[in-house]
Design goal:
Rhs_assc_core, 4-stranded antiparallel sheet, mainly beta, repeat, YD, RHS_repeat
C-alpha cells in the first residue's frame, strides 16, 4: 500500500517492525516519516486465521490527514497553513450517505490592547462553540452558541464578533497571573474557584465558591515538591515520602496512620492500614502483581506471555480467563465452573456475540463509528429473538432506542448537547413516561417535569450553591433545603422535616437528629423526634447505626450492624427488624453472592454488569445491557423492559403487552419515594442494584446509602475533597 505523500517518492520511512508470538499472533508496525505509526497489521494463524489492517496517512508536516480502521471506516483531517485543524470528516453514524463533519475557524482580534484569537467550532447540525485565547496562547474564555443558525451565516472575517443573531453563553472564564499560572476560573453560572501559588509554582491554596458556601484547602510542600500537609478548614492530613519521592506515611486529622513500602522497581510491597492490618504484595519479573495477602486473606494472579490475566483466586474460588490469539477475551469461567463465552468479534475487536452458561445468546452490531447499533437476545430453549436497535446523532449521542413490540425511547438535546426531553412509549404509541429538563449555565438541572403512566405531570425544581452542591429540592414528594459544612458534609436538610447531621474530624457521620414535622398532634407537638448514632473502625468503615426515638414512646428503634472482610468489603448486615444478610466477593472485587434471610443469589458479570443471577443452582434472572444501561430483565418466565429518565433511574418496567411489572419514583439522592414492585425488580436509582434488605445501593467498589446521602466507607482512591460524599453532593448531575 502507498500513500502518495506530497514530496515523497516512497511511502514509508522505515521497514515494518514485526513482533511474533508463539500462539500464532503477529503484530507489524510501519512508521511514517514523522515516526508515527502509519500502518498496524495484526495477523493470526492457527485455529482462527484473519488479518486486521489499520492505516494512517500524514502530510509532509507530520499532521495526520486520514485514518482507516480494519472495517474500512475512514476519518479525514484538514489543516490550514499554520497546521491548525480546520475540518474533520467522520464515518457515517447510521449508515447514511452523509458523513458528520466538524469545522474549525480562527480569527485574530484585539480585546482592548491585547491581541487574541477566537476559535469557532461547529458541525453541520448547527451545534457551535467558541474558545478565546490571549497572546500567550492561554484559554481565557469558553462559550456555547445557543441560536447558531448555520455555517453559511457566519462572517468568517470577524468570527470573534459573530454570529450577531446568536445568544452566546459563557461556560468558563479563566484568569492567569504574570507567570501564566491559572489563578481563577468562573463557570457559566458565575461560580468561582481560585488558586494561589508559592515561588516554586506549587498550588498552596484552593478556594471553591463564595459567600457562605465556600470550602477551601491549603497545601504545604517539601523541597522536592511533594505535598506534606493538606489543611481543609482545620482538618490536617500529613504525608511523608522516601528518598525516591514515594509516599511512605500518612496521618489523618484524627491521628490514624498508614504506612507504605516499595521494592526497587517502585512496586508497592507492603501497606499498613489505619486498623494496623498489613497488606503484602508480590510481583513477577515483569512487575505484574501475583499475590496480595491482607490479614488472613489472600488473592493470587497468573498471566500469559502477552500479559493477559489467566486466573484470579481468592477464598471464593478461581476465575479463569481464556483469550483468542489476538488477545481478545474468549471466555470467563467462575469458581462454580459456569462460563461466559465471547464467541466472536469484528475486525475492530468489537464484541459480536456472547453466550452465557445457561445458553442465552446476546448478539451485537455496530455502526461506522463503533457505536452499538443493535442488541439481540436469544433465550435458551426459545426460537424467539428480542432486538433493541439504536440510532445516533452525528455527535454520537443516542437519538432513539427501539425494542420489541415497538417499545421505544426517543431523546431530544439542547444546544449544549444535554438531554432536554425523553419519551418512553409502547406498541400503541401511548406515552408511558416522559421527562423534560431545564439547565443552568453550569449544566445543573434546574427543573425536571415527569409524566409517568398517565398520572399527570410532576414538576421538581432544583437550586445549587456557589460550589455546585444541591441546595434545594422542591417537588411534590420532597421539599427540602440543604446546607453543608466547611468540609462539604451535609449539615442540614430542612422544610418537610428538620434533619441535622454531625461529623468527626475524618468526615465520618456520627449523628443524625430528625424532627419530623410533616404532621403534628392536636396540641402542636411534633410527631417524632429521633437520633441515629454511628460508629466506625479506624479505616472509616461504618460498623453500626443505632436509632433512638424520643417521641412517641412506642416508636420502634432500629439497630444495624455492618461487618467487613480483610479487604474492607462489606460481608454482613444485620438489623433488629429481622433482616440478616451476608455478602461474598470474587477475586476481581465484584460481588459474588448475597444471602438474605437464608436465600442466596449468585451473580455473573459481563465486565462490571450483572447478566445472570442464580438461586439453588438454577437460573433466576437474565439481565441484558445496551449502550444506555440495563434494557431488560427476564425473571420467572416474564421479560420486563426498562424505561428510564435522563439520570438513568428505572422509573417503569413493562412487558411486551404493556403490562406494568415495576414503577418507582426517587428523590434526588436515590431514596425510593413511591414504588410498585411486585416483580421483585432490584435495579432502580441510576440503573444500579438496590439492596432491599439494607436500603443501600451496590456500586461495585462501595455501598451507597441514599437515606444518609453518602457512602458507608471511605473512597479507596481517596479522590476529591470529601471521601464519603456522593457525586460531590450534586446527585442530580451525576
Amino acid at each position: 500500500m502507498t500513500y502518495g505523500l506530497p514530496g515523497y517518492e516512497t511511502p514509508y520511512c522505515a521497514s515494518p517492525i514485526v513482533v511474533d508470538y508463539e500462539n500464532g499472533y503477529s503484530l507489524s508496525y510501519t512508521l511514517a516519516h514523522n515516526g508515527a505509526v502509519s500502518q498496524l497489521d495484526e495477523k493470526v494463524t492457527g485455529n482462527t486465521e484473519y488479518t486486521n489492517l489499520q492505516n494512517a496517512e500524514y502530510d509532509i508536516f507530520g499532521n495526520m490527514i486520514k485514518t482507516e480502521d480494519a472495517l474500512g471506516n475512514v476519518t479525514e483531517y484538514e489543516y490550514d497553513i499554520f497546521g491548525r485543524p480546520i475540518r474533520v470528516t467522520y464515518p457515517s453514524i447510521n449508515g447514511n450517505a452523509s458523513q458528520p463533519i466538524r469545522i474549525y475557524y480562527y480569527d485574530a482580534f484585539y480585546d482592548g490592547n491585547t491581541k487574541c484569537t477566537a476559535v469557532l467550532t461547529a458541525d453541520q447540525n448547527n451545534k457551535a462553540s467558541m474558545s478565546y485565547y490571549d497572546t500567550h496562547g492561554r484559554n481565557y474564555k469558553n462559550t456555547v452558541i445557543k441560536n447558531f443558525s448555520s455555517l453559511s451565516s457566519v462572517d468568517w472575517e470577524h468570527i470573534a464578533e459573530m454570529p450577531t443573531n446568536a445568544q452566546i453563553l459563557i461556560t468558563q472564564l479563566n484568569t492567569y497571573d504574570e507567570l501564566d499560572r491559572l489563578v481563577k476560573t468562573v463557570d457559566g453560572a458565575g461560580r468561582p474557584t481560585e488558586y494561589t501559588y508559592d515561588i516554586n509554582g506549587n498550588v498552596i491554596s484552593q478556594t471553591h465558591g463564595e459567600g457562605e458556601s465556600v470550602y477551601e484547602a491549603e497545601f504545604t510542600y517539601d523541597a522536592a515538591g511533594n505535598i506534606t500537609e493538606v489543611d481543609q478548614a482545620g482538618q490536617i492530613t500529613k504525608s511523608e515520602y522516601d528518598t525516591a519521592g514515594r509516599l511512605k506515611k500518612t496521618t489523618d486529622p484524627m491521628g490514624y496512620t498508614e504506612t507504605y513500602a516499595y521494592d526497587l522497581s517502585g512496586n508497592l510491597i507492603s501497606h499498613k492500614d489505619k486498623n494496623g492490618v498489613y497488606t503484602y504484595n508480590t510481583y513477577d519479573s515483569m512487575n505484574r502483581l501475583t499475590k496480595t495477602v491482607k490479614g488472613d486473606s489472600q488473592i493470587t494472579y497468573t498471566y500469559d506471555d502477552m500479559g493477559n490475566m489467566l486466573t484470579a483466586t481468592s477464598e471464593t474460588g478461581t476465575i479463569t480467563y481464556e483469550y483468542n490469539e489476538d488477545g481478545t477475551l474468549a471466555s470467563k469461567k467462575y469458581p462454580d465452573n459456569r462460563k461466559i463465552s465471547y464467541t466472536s468479534y469484528d475486525a475492530n475487536k468489537n464484541l459480536l456475540s456472547m453466550t452465557d452458561f445457561f445458553g442465552n445468546i446476546t448478539n451485537y452490531t455496530y455502526n461506522g463509528r463503533g457505536l452499538v447499533s443493535s442488541v439481540t437476545e436469544k433465550y435458551s430453549g426459545s426460537a424467539a429473538q428480542k432486538t433493541f436497535s439504536y440510532s445516533y446523532n452525528d455527535n454520537g449521542s443516542i437519538s432513539s432506542a427501539n425494542g420489541p413490540s415497538n417499545i421505544k425511547t426517543t431523546y431530544t438535546y439542547d444546544y449544549a448537547g444535554r438531554i432536554s426531553f425523553m419519551r418512553n412509549s409502547t406498541f400503541n404509541s401511548s406515552v408511558y413516561t416522559s421527562h423534560s429538563y431545564t439547565y443552568d449555565n453550569s449544566g445543573n438541572v434546574t427543573k425536571r417535569i415527569d409524566s409517568i403512566g398517565g398520572q399527570g405531570s410532576i414538576t421538581t425544581d432544583y437550586s445549587y450553591d456557589s460550589t455546585n452542591r444541591l441546595s434545594k429540592e422542591w417537588g411534590p414528594t420532597e421539599k427540602l433545603y440543604y446546607t453543608y459544612d466547611d468540609h462539604s458534609n451535609m449539615y442540614s436538610a430542612v422544610y418537610d422535616y428538620d434533619r441535622y447531621f454531625a461529623y468527626d474530624a475524618n468526615n465520618r457521620l456520627t449523628e443524625v437528629e430528625d424532627l419530623w414535622i410533616k404532621g403534628e398532634t392536636a396540641d402542636g407537638e411534633k410527631q417524632a423526634d429521633w437520633i441515629i448514632d454511628y460508629t466506625y473502625d479506624n479505616n472509616g468503615n461504618l460498623l453500626s447505626s443505632s436509632k433512638y426515638a424520643y417521641y412517641p414512646q412506642d416508636y420502634q428503634s432500629n439497630q444495624k450492624t455492618y461487618t467487613y472482610n480483610d479487604f474492607g468489603q462489606l460481608t454482613g448486615y444485620v438489623d433488629n427488624l429481622g433482616d440478616t444478610a451476608t455478602y461474598t466477593y470474587y477475586a476481581d472485587g465484584l460481588r459474588a453472592s448475597k444471602t438474605v434471610n437464608g436465600v442466596t443469589t449468585k451473580y455473573y458479570y459481563d465486565g462490571g454488569n450483572v447478566i445472570n443471577e442464580s438461586r439453588n443452582g438454577s437460573l433466576y434472572a437474565v439481565n441484558v445491557m445496551g449502550p444506555d444501561g440495563y434494557i431488560s430483565r427476564t425473571q420467572g418466565g416474564t421479560t420486563s423492559y426498562y424505561m428510564k429518565n435522563a439520570h438513568g433511574d428505572i422509573v417503569r418496567a413493562v412487558t411486551e403487552s404493556a403490562g406494568k411489572t415495576f414503577s418507582a419514583t426517587y428523590n434526588a439522592w436515590g431514596e425510593i419515594m413511591d414504588s410498585d414492585n411486585g416483580s421483585g425488580n432490584p435495579i432502580g436509582y441510576a440503573g444500579e442494584f438496590h439492596d432491599e434488605e439494607s436500603g443501600m445501593i451496590y456500586l461495585r467498589g462501595r455501598y451507597y446509602d441514599p437515606e444518609i446521602r453518602r457512602f458507608i466507607t471511605e473512597d479507596p482512591a481517596k479522590d476529591g475533597w470529601n471521601w464519603y460524599a456522593y457525586c460531590g453532593n450534586n446527585p442530580v448531575k451525576c
